[in-house]
Each structure stands twice: as C-alpha cells, then as structure tokens.
Known about the structure:
This protein has 286 residues and is α/β, with parallel strands linked by helices. It has a single domain (5-255, 262-283), classed as TIM Barrel, CATH 3.20.20.210. The protein has helices at residues 5-16, 36-42, 46-50, 53-67, 80-87, 90-94, 100-105, 108-123, 136-142, 149-169, 187-203, 269-283, and strands at residues 29-30, 71-76, 128-134, 173-178, 207-212, 226-229, 239-242, 258-261. It has an 8-stranded parallel beta sheet, sandwiched between helices. It starts with a helix and ends with a helix.
Amino acid sequence: xxxxxxxxxxxxxxxxxxxxxxxxxxxxxxxxxxxxxxxxxxxxxxxxxxxxxxxxxxxxxxxxxxxxxxxxxxxxxxxxxxxxxxxxxxxxxxxxxxxxxxxxxxxxxxxxxxxxxxxxxxxxxxxxxxxxxxxxxxxxxxxxxxxxxxxxxxxxxxxxxxxxxxxxxxxxxxxxxxxxxxxxxxxxxxxxxxxxxxxxxxxxxxxxxxxxxxxxxxxxxxxxxxxxxxxxxxxxxxxxxxxxxxxxxxxxxxxxxxxxxxxxxxxxxxxxxxxxxxxxxxxxxx
Length: 286
C-alpha cells in the first residue's frame, strides 16, 4: 500500500462521506475494532498492556502489520469511559478534579491509549488511526443510568472530552458505537449528545462514523457522519457494522465506504487475522 494512502482515504471520507477507488488501493476503509489481539502478540495480560503506552503502540503496530489493515484502532468502544468514571483517576483526584470528563482524561487506560495514538500518528504513516467510543446511550447503560436527557448530556460531555483527546493526538477517524437499539424516548437527547462528537471530528478534519445496531436509528445520525449498519440492512453509501464474532462475518459490499464492527471483535489472533483478510479481499474486489 502506498505511504499515507489510508490517511488520504480517511481525509476523503471526512470531506465527502465516501472514498473513491484508485488503482492499487482498496476502496473502503477496513476498520474492525481489534485491539485485545495485540496483547497476544506482546504476551501480556490485558491490564498491563492497556496501561502501558509503549507496549500498546508496539503491539498495535505489530497487529497492523500482521493483519494488513488500513486502520489502527486505539480505542474499541468497550468499557473505557465507564471504568474510568467508576475508578476516578488518581491523578485527577489528587488534583481535586470533580468534573467527570477531567477525571476520565487522566485515567491510566485513557492516558495510555491517547499517548499510543500520538506515537502512532508520528510513526505508522502507512495507517490511518481510529478511536471508537461507545455512544452516550451505551455509556449510560454501563453506568446503570436510564437514557434520560440529563444522563445523555452528562455522558455526551465525557465522550466529547475523550474524542477531543484522541483527535488532538492525531486520530483520523472517530467512531461512535451503539450496540443496542436506541429508546424512542431518548432520540432527541441522544442526537444532541452525539452531534458535538461529530462536529469536533469534522473541525479536526477527521472522519466521523455513527455505528448502529438498529437501522431505524439511522435517521438520528447527525449530518456529516457516515452511518454504519449491520450487513443485511446497510444500503448504498452506508458503512457496514459487523457483529463481534468474526466467524459470522459475511463478505461486505465492495462499495461500502467503511467496514467496522459493533464493538470489540472477539476471538483470538489467528481467527481474527483470517477474517480480516477476507474483509480486505472483499472490499478490494479480489
């Protein structure tokens, strides 16, 4: 792959909501949310791996080389924000921080992921960088809160702080993932919470994607975001949101602008490598 071609296509996705095929490159960005598999390469427990920026950056670079993906994912829409809020960063606590967004930004896992993003932005020039965050409704559920306007607003503020940190570190793609259908009653509050995330990505000239389990929720996606839906319901111009089990992945359409997953990809290194290879070949029309 020519140097920086994935980053160039990410910029094109940010500007136009799609990527134009060019000779010798894959037309879509292939971005399944793989990260835990890199800990296997480093032979480290997940807890140690995820809080060490050097190990994290090295492992993700090695995973990128082994899988041959377009995108290195430094956050995978897991419990990053929720666990950070629950634990309350010792750094933030020592500084007397009471703002949840500030507490999250100083958490060891967040700090390691952001620093790994910064290092990879400077060294992994053949890859675009992505940060995937759980959406405000999913974060509220992880915290045991109903998706009422107050909870969605607070969760949105936390996610906005995280999004800014990753984008300032050099992320080229921001994904907001809702792995469960949204409550109709929460629709307005959810859109209000997600819109600033999309806007800050666009301000930073990064692509923004909203990854949804329910096609009925696509109408709520803010303007300027690429909508990713499960393969059976994704239409022309929409991205594909695969399930978490790579054994169930179908070959995506060659014209999909983005191929990702509804949360972290399960299974070990070998199975994921084979499945990601299938995706890359499918979008390239091989």
